[in-house]
Amino acid sequence: MRILVIEDDRDAATWLLKGLAESGHVADHAADGEQGLALALERVHDALIVDRMLPKMDGLTIIRTLRAEGIEIPVLILSALSDVDERVKGLRAGGDDYLAKPYAFAEMLARVEGLARRKGGESQETKLRAADLEIDLLSRTVTRSGKPVPLQPREFKLLEYLVRHAGHIVTRTMLLENVWDYHFDPQTNVIDVHVSRLRAKIDKGFDEPLLQTVRGAGYMIRAH
Fold it and tell me: Which CATH number fits domain 2-123: 3.40.50.620, 3.30.1490.110, 1.10.150.240, 3.40.50.2300?
């Protein structure tokens, strides 16, 4: 399942992202309301975890905007505001569930997985595609034009993240946080080395390269 976490508290977000990854989910992060809404509008996530109080745009405004656009993605609201009136406001804004802080990770995970199941989120995808490349998420295999592409686990995770963002620039910071679980830049060429190896495996022998370097910005998988 792919989950978007919209949380401005760095420590809380790091804890959530780590726990979701360890539970087998792919998690994206937005640190403010405007960025969170922009990512949610891409309609690529199975569920949202939204903090109530956010800079630039509060969580309830994000939810109301999504519902106005006809986007019915499951939303779990997290908030330090725990009284009944605040819970009612969150649910009336379009939230599907409301969890007061502090909370146990296990309960949060059970709630968001339950929301996604009820709305069919978990059965939506078992394969990812970009042009003639296909990733089977169940067997953890990759093919291009029907030919198998053997990858190491880290290369598979890197490719999966890039393909999930096909057509969009993926920055070094995004890769460090979501593929390597680093929330700082270790100032090494670890990303460059892995991207180079991945490019050799998925593009060598094919006329059209899929993995592109966007100078000064990051990397991108060609969508078509």
Answer: 3.40.50.2300
Average pLDDT over residues 190-195: 91
The closest of 42, 53, 40, 46 to 12, measured between CA atoms, is 53
| CA pair distance 43, 2, nearest whole angstrom | 11
Enter the pTM of the model.
Answer: 0.58
CATH 3.40.50.2300 in the chain: give the residue spans.
2-123
pLDDT tens digit string along 12-59?
A: 999 999 888 888 888 899 999 999 999 999 888 889 999 999 999 999
Is the CB of residue 31 less than 8 Å from the CB of residue 57? no
Predicted confidence (pLDDT) per residue in 51-86, tens digit: 999 999 999 999 999 999 888 899 999 988 878 888
**3-state class (DSSP) for residue 50:** strand
CATH of domain 127-221: 1.10.10.10
pLDDT above 90: residue 186: no
Tally Cβ neighbours within 10 Å of residue 21: 15
